């Protein structure tokens, strides 16, 4: 029998590490309280799947995610992926910002081995906790040869998603995560790991982890908005703004006027869509002076913000080169 793959689990907290005094409740609990050693001990089947090692990188509720933890997590991924006999890395995470952490890693990690994020919608003490199976499935995927070269992956509810595509689409259901554009990449059912397709953007044009993080914020377009938020952010020194626009990137005329002033002040402006799916049309020519702003393509506002953050951190002058920045959004 061949030796089991060596898999490293990096734990960051979240609901998967949550606990409650009432097992019947899956809504009232304290996130990020159970150590990773306890999570692993609750899944004895792991011993027949992989040689698992664990590191408690953090213990946070993911709603409170911060850039410094992303930097630490990237460093730990780089450290463990450089170990010659590590076959894959699993990251346990909270669901609230999982898609953002996954996107950050997609943008900044070359992934010589599979990097798989997993989480849970119910705490570990729940009568029907989903964390143990999600963890087992994630380890299976991380150690599977077909997972190599697929970029950062997310495994939840027996489905395998691309980090770039996945999003949380329900407040509480165990099948809360979806990939609106192309669906899951594959599935896990007991020992069977099936990756049916390769993501269109399996490996991003890897950008460096920022040493300094520019201020990039999200605003929304809706009926009769004011320009107070845009003006205040520009005055505060924001470097980028992502608009959660209506429909196909449509922005209210009041906001267009405010955003033109923001662009004139050197702020990069990107249109995404608040609809949750679809592709925002890319203009033939980006002309902020005429109110024609960058398109986030099919990235949701939160992932578009991340790309803009990392891109401006690498090259602050990109705000003055909108066509180059647009090409980056079209390619990642």
From TrEMBL:
Catalytic-site annotation from UniProt: 15, 95
The UniProt entry, under InterPro entries, shows:
AsnASE_II (IPR004550), Asp/glu_Ase-like_sf (IPR036152), Asparaginase/glutaminase-like (IPR006034), Asparaginase/glutaminase_AS1 (IPR020827), Asparaginase/glutaminase_AS2 (IPR027475), Asparaginase_C (IPR040919), L-asparaginase_C (IPR027473), L-asparaginase_N (IPR027474)
| A Pfam family matched in the record | Asparaginase
UniProt-recorded Gene Ontology molecular function terms: asparaginase activity
What EC number(s) would the UniProt record show?
Answer: 3.5.1.1
The L-asparaginase N-terminal domain extends over 6-199
Q: Which PROSITE patterns match?
A: ASN_GLN_ASE_1 (PS00144), ASN_GLN_ASE_2 (PS00917), ASN_GLN_ASE_3 (PS51732)
> Which CDD domains is this protein grouped with?
L-asparaginase_II
Q: Where does substrate bind?
A: 62, 95-96
Report the record's Gene Ontology biological process terms.
asparagine metabolic process
Q: Which Gene3D superfamilies match?
A: 3.40.50.40, L-asparaginase, N-terminal domain
Q: Can you tell which superkingdom this protein's organism belongs to?
A: Bacteria
Q: Where is the Asparaginase/glutaminase C-terminal domain?
A: 215-316
Enumerate the UniProt keywords alphabetically: Hydrolase
PANTHER family attached here? 60 KDA LYSOPHOSPHOLIPASE (PTHR11707:SF28), L-ASPARAGINASE (PTHR11707)
State the family it belongs to: Belongs to the asparaginase 1 family.
Q: Give the protein name, as stated in the record.
A: L-asparaginase 2
Identify the species of origin: Cupriavidus yeoncheonensis
């Amino acid at each position: 029998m061949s030796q089991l793959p060596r898999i490293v689990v990096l734990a960051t907290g979240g609901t998967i590490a949550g606990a409650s005094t009432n097992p019947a409740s899956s809504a009232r609990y304290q996130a990020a309280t159970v150590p990773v050693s306890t999570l692993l001990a609750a899944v004895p089947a792991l011993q027949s799947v992989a040689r698992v090692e664990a590191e408690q990188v953090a213990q946070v509720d993911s709603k409170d995610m911060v850039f410094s933890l992303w930097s630490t997590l990237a460093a730990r991924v780089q450290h463990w992926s450089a170990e010659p006999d590590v076959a894959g890395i699993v990251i346990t995470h909270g669901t609230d910002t999982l898609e953002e952490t996954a996107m950050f890693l997609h943008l900044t990690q070359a992934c010589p081995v599979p990097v798989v994020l997993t989480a849970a919608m119910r705490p570990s003490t729940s009568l029907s906790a989903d964390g143990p199976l999600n963890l087992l499935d994630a380890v299976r995927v991380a150690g599977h040869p077909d997972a190599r070269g697929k970029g950062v992956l997310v495994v939840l509810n027996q489905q395998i998603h691309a980090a770039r595509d996945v999003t949380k689409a329900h407040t509480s259901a165990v099948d809360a995560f979806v990939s609106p554009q192309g669906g899951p990449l594959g599935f896990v059912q007991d020992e069977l790991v099936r990756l049916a397709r390769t993501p269109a953007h399996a490996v991003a044009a890897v950008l460096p982890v920022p040493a300094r993080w520019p201020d990039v914020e999200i605003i929304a377009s809706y009926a009769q908005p004011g320009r107070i938020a845009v003006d205040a952010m520009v005055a505060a020194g924001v470097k980028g703004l992502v608009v959660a626009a209506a429909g196909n990137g449509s922005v209210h005329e009041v906001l267009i006027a405010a955003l033109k002033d923001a662009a004139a002040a050197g702020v990069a402006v990107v249109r995404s869509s608040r609809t949750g799916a679809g592709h925002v049309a890319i203009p033939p020519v980006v002309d902020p002076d005429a109110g024609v702003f960058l398109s986030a393509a099919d990235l949701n506002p939160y992932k578009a913000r991340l790309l803009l953050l990392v891109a401006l951190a690498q090259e602050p002058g990109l705000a003055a080169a909108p066509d180059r920045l647009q090409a980056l959004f079209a390619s990642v």
